[in-house]
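hey so u asked for the seq, here:
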Amino acid sequence: MKKLLLLSLVLISVTGFSQIQKNNKSQLTIEKIMQNPDKWIGTSPTGIFWDEKGENIYFNWNPETDTLSSLYSYSLKNKKTVKVPTDEKIKLPGRYGNYDKDKTQKVYTKNGNIFLLDIKNGFEKQLTDWLDRVSSPQFVLNDTEISFIKDNNLFAINPETGLIRQITNFVSGNERPETKSKSSAKWLEEQQKDLFVVLNEREAKNKARENQREREKVEQPVKIYTGKKRMNDISLSPTGNYVIYSTYQRAQGAKSTSVTHHVTESGYTEERKARVKVGSEQGKVEMGIFDVKNNKTVKINTSSIPGLKDLPDYLNDYPERMPPKDSSEIKNRQLNLLGPVWNETEDLAVIVALSDDNKDRWILLLNPSTGDLELLDRQRDEAWIGGPGIGGWGFSTGNMGWMPDAKSIWFHSEVSGYSHLYVVNIETKKRTALTKGEFEVSEAFISKDKKHFCLTANKIHPGVKHFYRMPVWGGELVQVTSIEGNNDVTLSPDEKYLAIRYSFANKPWELYLQENKPEAQAEQITHSNTPEFEKYNWRVPEFVTFTAGDGATVHARLYRPESHEQQSPAVIFVHGAGYLQNAHKWWSSYFREYQFHNFLVDNGYTVLDIDYRASAGYGHDWRTGIYRHMGGKDLSDNVDGAKFLVKKYDVSPERIGIYGGSYGGFITLMALFNHPDVFAAGAALRSVTDWAHYNQGYTSNILNTPVEDSIAYVRSSPIYFAEGLEGALLMCHGMVDDNVQFQDIVRLTQRLIELGKENWELAVYPVEPHGFRESSSWTDEYKRIFKLFEENLKRQLTEAGRLQNVD
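ran it, structure tokens below
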């Protein structure tokens, strides 16, 4: 359905905005909903933590709409919320730290130095007073010493005596053996020794002194040269006998992109370095062992890891590159070793190995005395390793730890199709599922008494998160929180109370307090919304499902006018990606879009917000549904959503628009290029137009790399489908976007020009990165989106085939 609706422009003006605004039937305006959210909506509490005695909850808040948020506290004793004075804030113990085995002492850093807190009497003792910063303090050697990292080396301090000792001796650069060559000076030196006895006697005496000093010298830790590698982590075993360290080697020769800034203080354009592109050489994490007792290094033996030569299935599409089975040409895949997680009673550690292609994760038991590894669990994914608590790309081990028996490890795995908790015995290697069902466990930890798991899961609905308790070796999940929405829990130190950061679909985040008991009432502590924001009756969307063309059940949010015309217009919103969910029952991170949807509904539109394929919250198959084909099932889910609106909600098939940012912008382009019969107009914001120009960490998981899997890139990139554009297209992009870079949209623009397309517009924002910062930019962008929909979806074809305004 061809529509000649818009002129092609590189920069569009505000012409027509005023008339569109006059047509607004909502008490909201775009200027209002796109203004500074702290002033308009209010500032929700963040950064929640307890004091060590569990008597006060601390959080960042800004109920007075000051320039910056301040620290507040809520007293459980007097039920009062107060702003914490600056002098009191400075005296507070460090929020992050480590505890001794009895949980009576806490060690932490503050202003770069080490402090020790006696939790019972509240006495704080400063252990160091340096200008240099230290990090990672923790109790070792049965709590008799505290290890810490300073200047890329590991030290230990005795809190009783104050004695500090250096445990490791990492040295940057390479060891350079002294080279001696015959020279004229050397010849003369040897001649002197041949001629004069006194010189030989003096040399012998000097060597004797040197030998004596060497015999009397206290042994120092062996020097470990790190070359150009950066120290990534250093961890001492609880016994103090071993150090496991990791280094990060930056990619050599990988070409960085650059971002040109045009609006600068200097008046000159400025180039700033940004990320590399997918397929570029990547950095590498390596791991080693230092045997403290024997003052030597131990190499980790990875040869026993199974499946190092396993090839990915996608190579079947490139038979010319498939080597013969058992061929010597097949090399071991490169690994990144991550961890460790130390056993508290023995010199044993668990580490994680991730293949460079991110299709394998091995959980391994490491014997630090020999460097030998034993396999505890292998998760293979022909798409990519990921999911809640699992880790994967980003050099993360995932969420795991030792069980109370010190003979088993707990971890997350998607082996059942959903992220669940498992335990494996390090001796028998038997793996047991602790949780199961068609839901995901997103967070988990063992209670202080080691009798229960505390976990967060979406057990009752994909869009609802509750806090649960479960016997540590498995059993019934007992739901502790009860308010529908999202319950983000911070336990009190004695684990008797929950500080809950809670929100619902039309209610921003607030702080609640509840006893750690099922069915206990949650008490609201904060009220953050401004009176002006609360004047509007914000809608609770309908949480609906529809059936996709392949039979899958798709979850979505639906916004409908209270009374709507027949064959009404509709808009589909496509959220961004990474690993994200938006058809849930809590306050969306897309709060501007949520408000815009209310605005659209007031103006007669039906809005559908879909958790298409690859959205979070629905298990492995949904997560990986876009593997090797972005713009496949994720796009067809949105097309099926449009059909769902037409069939069930009396939406006109001629009057459906689509919009979204980042990944949502990408889907919008694919929708208009591939399904012009479904979508009459679309707004693509900060959109990826060619995945070969995006980053490594995200893209290579889904599409592999352009060199290795060109098929996946060609069928997934909008720039290859631009000839299909028929409807009206608005593109908006920040010129200093260092994520989806401005080059992306410029290349597509040139493609549209060469194809002779006329029904598109491009609005550029000179000072905006990927996530816009200025209210004026947000306002301008959404005025243009509303104008696009008003001019294209509020029209219909007359019998003569001419376009006319419905209104």
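The longest strand covers residues 651-661. The CA atoms of residues 86 and 537 lie 38 Å apart.
lmk if thats what u needed
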